Amino acid sequence: MAGEDFPSVGDALGGCVIASQPALAPTPALQNLKITRAPSLENLNTTPKDRTCWREKSLRRLFSLSKSNGLSKTEEAFEDNVRVSIVEESIECLRRNDLGGYTIPAHNLYPFQWNWDSAIVAAGWAVFDEARAWEELDTLFSGQWEDGMVPSIVFHKPSTTYFPGPEIWGLPGNPSRSTGITQPPVAAISARFLFEHTENVKLAEKKMTDLFPKILASHRWWYKARDPENKGVVAILHPWESGMDNSPSWDAAMQFPIDNLPPYERKDLHHVNASMRPTKDTYDHYLTLLYRFKAENFYDSEKLYWVSPFRMTDLCTNSILFRANRDLRWLAIKLGKDDVVKEIDEWLDRGFEGFRQLWDEKSGLYYCQDQLTGKLADAPTSAAFLPLFAGVASKDQAAKLVENLRRWLDNVPFGVPSTDPKDPRFEPLRYWRGPVWIIVNWMICNGLLHYGYDDIAQRIYDDSVALTSNAGLKEYFDPKTGEGCGGELFSWTAAMCLAWLDRPNAISIGHKMSGPKIHLEQDSTLPR
Ligand code: DGY
């Protein structure tokens, strides 16, 4: 079914949608986009079936944008000159990174199934192979722990190209099936996308019915294990749990002493230049945490909360969890599981309160918080804008965030940099200390549209199109040059090309925000 024909979430929830989004269109600037790269994949081998499926959906996209009988010149240029090859490469990339029911983020660098990568990648699969998309989530949840936690990495098959692998999380003679930590809970957001836009309703209903209790259990785990003090916001205990591994937000909290570590070899540096990866000192701290958790027995997650020397309220995790709660609520209503709506509403209520402590009125930004000292981490990072994606910021807060965001974007040719480019900690190549990440651009852009900032959302969309068109499916991008960095043929960049950049908002992932209007009632001026 075409996105536009689908009953709106607002109808389903009795008008609870915060704001509907206008479609982002290719702008005239993109007609002049110079493609300077050769395709990352030679001999493109997308199957005719993949291609037909994507083509059909793309045509639908173009018709829904132009609302006319034919395609406009801009649309034709956009479609034929800029995006056709990247979309075909994206499909091919997912097929190549498919190791049988799960998609690795990139060969060699990340040879297992990563939690938030996979949840995003499922949305990419959904664009051309829905059954495979559901399988991605099924396989991810096959690694779910009994207590509800979904681990950050599931080690389905052995690999020698990654450290720390299953024998470090477990023992050499008894390798672990997964890590003992988690990652941002994207699954409900992706599952809603699959369910809402399905062309195979029977399959979607069956899959969603199986998946719903597992996702619900994982959200319950977050609140039980990571918010035992009822703060309304959850804690991460390792920078790897944030997904933003070496964000400057962790610098002060990562000053604890390094333990006497067994000798280790960084395998990531065999695949990516050291200037684009976390430093040795940062890795020593990562491993200190890993070995301490192992000594405490990972399985006692409630104990870990109290013993970890690193305990942060992370903006990325909490914004995603908040937005995922909105989508889980939407799914609960669709599946007739009204009994859990009240529980989710309580999480949302408490979340609105919890986020208040993370706001700094003076700088007009949100910050992560060190739960052990109570101090806000003073680093201005792109995670500061993710409360827009959650829909937890007030209209005034959104205006201040946008003021900051405009300034950041005026200081680099390509946005959104992961750290304020004027901050001394900004490093344009080093992983989460400066580079642009397409998935973060998607979340920020989505949030901006909901708050009515269409112009700046369009700018971020255009930058994302330009970066992927020119540099290809890289892991992240230098905001100063647009050059691709990190891993090659990266699955979630491909998924974003398919599920966001190639689609109108009516059928792109996360196009509508739903949920109770708790905040709107407090702030009646928020655009609807
Ligand atoms: C890595 O190894 O870089 C990962 O981000 C850890 O999950």
From TrEMBL:
Residue ranges of domain Mannosylglycerate hydrolase MGH1-like glycoside hydrolase in the record: 110-493
Stored SUPFAM superfamilies: Six-hairpin glycosidases
The record's annotation in Gene3D superfamilies points to: 1.50.10.10
One annotated GO molecular function is: hydrolase activity
Cited Pfam families: MGH1-like_GH
Q: Which domain of life is it from?
A: Eukaryota
* InterPro entries named in the record: 6-hairpin_glycosidase_sf (IPR008928), 6hp_glycosidase-like_sf (IPR012341), Glycoside_hydrolase_63 (IPR004888), MGH1-like_GH (IPR054491)
Name of the protein in its database record: Mannosylglycerate hydrolase MGH1-like glycoside hydrolase domain-containing protein
